[in-house]
Amino acid sequence: MRALFLYLARRERFKNFALKFGFFRKAAARFIAGDALEDAVRVVKLANRRKLTGTLDLLGENTLTKEDARTACEELIRVEDRIHRECAGCNLSIKLTQIGLKLDPGFCERNLAQIAGHAKNLGNFIRVDMEDSSCTDQTLDIVERAFRDFGNVGTVIQSYLYRSERDTARMLKEGIPIRLVKGAYREPATIAFRRKKDTDANFIRIMKTLLDSEIHHAIATHDSSIIRAAKEYARSRGIPKDSFEFQMLYGIRRDLQRQLAGEGYNVRIYIPFGAQWYAYFMRRLAERPANVAFLVRSMLLERKTNGRFDDNL
Ligand SMILES: Cc1cc2nc3c(=O)[nH]c(=O)nc-3n(C[C@H](O)[C@H](O)[C@H](O)COP(=O)(O)OP(=O)(O)OC[C@H]3O[C@@H](n4cnc5c(N)ncnc54)[C@H](O)[C@@H]3O)c2cc1C
After folding, report:
1. By Cβ atoms counted within 10 A, which residue in 57, 211, 229, 297 is the most buried?
2. 1 within domain boundaries
3. Which helix H or strand E contains 300, and what residues bound it?
4. Is residue 205 part of a domain?
């Protein structure tokens, strides 16, 4: 099931077919703040009122032309301005393929420099998401240089990749803040763990290294046993609650988000918005069979969303 959804996430023809159905859009609304920046800002403000911070993701990836990549870059800069004007406790997550990585890495790096430079002037932080393994080396190289130039850029390490302990050590040597995740793409067994048990064990190993490093990192998972392990490890080493953060995706494990915030941990919600939600939604379906059942129910009932965007927080 996971492989099928990750395969379909990259099929343009299936995308064009699926988007014809209203229920598909309605089911996706569970994981996406809305189409407009307005919707995302409303969710961030609500999150802030609930003692949660946010990271906005303007949806879009694998941009096909330089013109589109430039447009995405300009939009991201507008998002930064809006965050600065209206949102407390919010930063920006971006994907390098959205700003041209697959078209021309040098051009992508210049775009990132503009985004990071602008964020720096506004006193904000940019998280560069990690995409599939064809992007890993270039992403780490570009982030490393951007961090040296601007100091406000971090990236993501995926515990399903065999290489990740090495990459973590390299990033830590530079002092680069990391978001640790399990990994959301379809990777071959030659480079990635296949069994959840192995991915989880690697996550816990890397998590301990991060917590020991005295840099502000993010533990991004909805896995309650891993979260419990992180809390216990931090407590046993006398690592203060405010020296790291938990991160979760908008619309997933809201109970846990609130519980952790109530316990005094920093919790940041990844809030995607925009019209290009198809690939993101397919990855969320791939992660959890229950989400597919939810999609099927939406199809059968043609459920109406009630237009409120705060339901999923
Ligand atoms: C803030 C954040 C940023 C991320 N950034 C990246 C990135 O840059 N690159 C990348 O490859 N991946 C990224 N991911 C996705 C990540 O790699 C995993 O695919 C995703 O988090 C699911 O794994 P899990 O750690 O929650 O554990 P799992 O073992 O998959 O799930 C643990 C529990 O979480 C809940 N859960 C998990 N997924 C879902 C879902 N889709 N719907 C409903 N419940 C669910 C269920 O209760 C499940 O039992 C990010 C995740 C988060 C939270």
Report:
1. 57
2. no
3. helix 289-301
4. yes
